Amino acid sequence: MSKITFFTDNSISLSDFGFVPSDSCEYAVFPGFCDVHVHFREPGFSYKETIATGSAAAAAGGYTTVCTMPNLNPVPDSVQNLERQLELIRAGASIQVIPYGAISRGENGEKLSDMEGMADAVCAFSDDGRGVQSEALMRDAMLKARSLGKIIAAHCEDNSRLFGGYIHDGAYAARHGHRGISSASEYKQIERDLRLAAETGCAYHVCHISTKESVELIRRAKAAGLDVSCETAPHYLVLCDDDLQEDGRFKMNPPLRSRDDRAALIEGIRDGTIDMIATDHAPHSREEKSHGLEKSLMGVVGLETAFPVLYTELVQKGVISLEKLVQLMSLAPRRRFGLAPNGFTVFELGKEHDIDPTRFKSMGRATPFDGRRVLARCVLTVSESKTVYNIPEDKKQ
User: What is the DSSP letter of 304?
Assistant: First the structure.
């Protein structure tokens, strides 16, 4: 007999969607996962990923809702430019895809975008990929976002503290002669933005935090009553700079930090300081990721590996409960960003397999988890009452 545990509406009839459980297998039915931080690269960079391939990858990872970042061409900084992206979403998305609007025109940090014009069609505003360097512009953005009832989701990076770095400024960088990115480049801008959020009353969200100082700053801000939330990504919870290899699949921004930083992030998800887990799914071409740590572009894919890796490394090892992981991957992001529940996903638990990027739905292949043995696999995803992923026959055994 198979075992099926529901973490969502247990009146769902799985057979209506063609699901036939295998004998002696354990399954879990979860509310569709929600990722508030992905890059689908379209319009402008469809050689890296498209709405169609990105949403297929999301469905294969159990996601039924994703929010796409605005570092595109054209940047969604006006109603006209946003409509280019929305047309592609309507034509190619197999799940719910909701865009961000840019904070600044062209993401150049100099002039506010048409936030008011875009507000009804976007999940929030962000210049992800670039930190907003101007304090005055960020203050204006927060005031405008507050008036519109929208969140500012900040990629926090102080360019004056980067010094040409491309991995964490830690032991690995020192041993191997790499230029390091300081932790201060992240947390000092968070410190600034928290001060502005307190001043403006803006709903503020910090993207992909990676340092222990960031965790503590956000913990204190929450204790002080600020309307602040944050996310981290699977790779920061499972890996650190001890795990680096001379390979572009280990290069992302922020970088993999120290063992102490990872410990602080884990404590942050356990005590509720960190509200949610997002993948920062950021595909590049094979060539762009083939130049080692120094010269490869920053970004790794993560939609198809997030739950299997986190279940294996956090739940199975007793770091957090399965219920907590569902909160972090589905319920909390929807609650914070005002996104309605959408569909469900079924995972087979305890099924050992190795992560194989050649079988990804995503066009991106660069993942630091290549070859890693995990203990869960997605077998079905349903979005808006439609089956958007069903495990292929050749993978069922």
Answer: T
Q: CA of 247: how far to CAs of 244, 255, 287, 298, 306, in Å?
A: 8, 13, 12, 11, 20
Q: Using one digit for the tens of pLDDT, what is the confidence trace for 91-139?
A: 999 999 999 999 999 999 999 999 999 999 999 999 999 999 999 999 9
The per-residue pLDDT for 396 is 60
Residues of the chain by 3-state class (helix, strand, coil), percent to 5: 40, 20, 45
Q: Which of 57, 82, 12, 67 is nearest to 333 (CA)?
A: 67
**Average pLDDT over all residues of the chain:** 97
**Edge-first strand listing for the sheet containing 203-206:** 151-154, 203-206, 228-232, 276-277
Q: 374-392: b or e for each residue (b if 16 or more CB lie within 10 Å)?
A: bbbbbbbbbbeeebbbbbe
Of 84, 220, 101, 113, nearest in space to 153 by CA: 101
CA 299 to centroid of chain Cα atoms: 11
Within a 10 A sphere around the Cβ of 134, how many other Cβ atoms?
Answer: 13
Name the β-bridge partners of 344. Answer: 31, 382
Residue 228: strand pairing partners: 204
Residue pair 289/250 in contact (Cβ under 8 Å)? The answer is: no
CA distances from 31 to 67, 194, 233, 242, 343 (A): 17, 32, 19, 34, 6
**Phi first, then psi: what are they for 150, rounded to 5°?**
-120, 160
Residue 77 bears catalytic tag: no
Catalytic residue among 16, 280, 354, 356: 280
Residue 221 to residue 329: CA distance in whole angstroms: 23
Residue 254, token pair as written in the block: 């922020």
Contacts of residue 252, Cβ cutoff 8 Å, sequence gap at least 6:
235, 280, 282, 298, 299, 300
Identify any residues that bridge with 232 across adjacent strands, giving them in sequence order: 277
CA 376 to chain centre: 19
